[in-house]
Amino acid sequence: SSHAHSTAANPKPGWWEKFIGPGAPLDTDKYFVICTNILGSCYGSTGPSSLDPVSKQPYATSFPILTVEDMVRAQFRLLDNMGINKLFASVGSSLGGMQSLAAGVLFKDRVPRIISVSGCARSHPYSIAMRHTQRQALMADNNWHSTRGNYYGKMPPHSGMKLARQIATVTYRSGPEWEKRFGRQRADPGKPPALCPDFLIETYLDHAGEKWCLEYDANSLLYISKAMDIFDLGKDHQDAMVKRRQENAGKLQGAMTEQVPQDTCNLVLPEQPYEEKESSSDIMAGTATSSAASPVELSEDLVKGMAPLRDTPTLVMGVASDILFPAFQQREIAETLRKVGNRRITHVELGEDRSLFGHDTFLLDLEGVGGEIRRFLG
């Protein structure tokens, strides 16, 4: 959502309310702050729930697969329309942190500073697996499955959406925080245990899932989460994306009239299912289980892809308790930029002694996250 801060027209607190405003880390006495609805969302920008100009019906799952780079290009189209040639900084967290890095790569002359909080330069298997699980839970809802995502004007996939959000919420916070916050407390200790939400943590997840169902479009969740999975600033991936964009541009005229079958799928399964190899245990031998240990090696492909950021001052922030975007992913960004030759990297990692809020730290820690942003921007 673009509603990062309240306005006179909409006094409801925004999702980064305390971080934006006079005297705040993003000080509106100094800076003109722009926040957009990303491409694919259901809050105003074109997405799956938007009307197809040809059919006059919602795009639903005929909407094209998006990339983070598509979102960034749309944002810079907006800047062009506003007559803004150069930003002071591109600031983002989570998916926004991915967008900020992509903005610097795609528009290096227009982005003189970057702040990426709890983001990554490429999505890693664990994060992809968690988002895949959420999508599968959502699409298993019969209200989605029976309509192949074209549920508009009908019953939405409420149960699947709720379960997907509950899974997501588990990845947004941390076990130590919930230990302190909920412990093993039950909602009503006087009643016998039941299969319905019983522990306080269960009621919390139930509420989080139910609330989200009423605020967001299921297909937007599918498309945006897939865009996050696809994200990779490596040179090979970027080249492949450019080639695909060029091919699609050539097909665009015909695509306006072509009827795409709704019952087709381009999924190709391997002939043999994946099996654990005997050497699997050797892969992790000697690897610590904490987020302080990075299970990935520095990628030369990523170094080549992030070369445009060689001279861009960049703040990279990570959180040790983050299980969705583990701290090694932010460390990968910083180490890659140093390998590129960037000597203006500020890398900050908030340990568990400073934050137990996991991935959501960027929403909650005004002192830790906000303070670093303020210092970096000067």
TrEMBL record:
<dbReference type="GO" id="GO:0009092">
    <property type="term" value="P:homoserine metabolic process"/>
</dbReference>
<dbReference type="InterPro" id="IPR029058">
    <property type="entry name" value="AB_hydrolase_fold"/>
</dbReference>
<protein>
    <recommendedName>
        <fullName>AB hydrolase-1 domain-containing protein</fullName>
    </recommendedName>
</protein>
<dbReference type="GO" id="GO:0009001">
    <property type="term" value="F:serine O-acetyltransferase activity"/>
</dbReference>
<dbReference type="InterPro" id="IPR000073">
    <property type="entry name" value="AB_hydrolase_1"/>
</dbReference>
<dbReference type="GO" id="GO:0005739">
    <property type="term" value="C:mitochondrion"/>
</dbReference>
<dbReference type="InterPro" id="IPR008220">
    <property type="entry name" value="HAT_MetX-like"/>
</dbReference>
<comment type="similarity">
    <text>Belongs to the AB hydrolase superfamily. MetX family.</text>
</comment>
<dbReference type="Pfam" id="PF00561">
    <property type="entry name" value="Abhydrolase_1"/>
</dbReference>
<dbReference type="GO" id="GO:0004414">
    <property type="term" value="F:homoserine O-acetyltransferase activity"/>
</dbReference>
<dbReference type="GO" id="GO:0006535">
    <property type="term" value="P:cysteine biosynthetic process from serine"/>
</dbReference>
<dbReference type="GO" id="GO:0009086">
    <property type="term" value="P:methionine biosynthetic process"/>
</dbReference>
<feature type="domain" description="AB hydrolase-1">
    <location>
        <begin position="13"/>
        <end position="338"/>
    </location>
</feature>
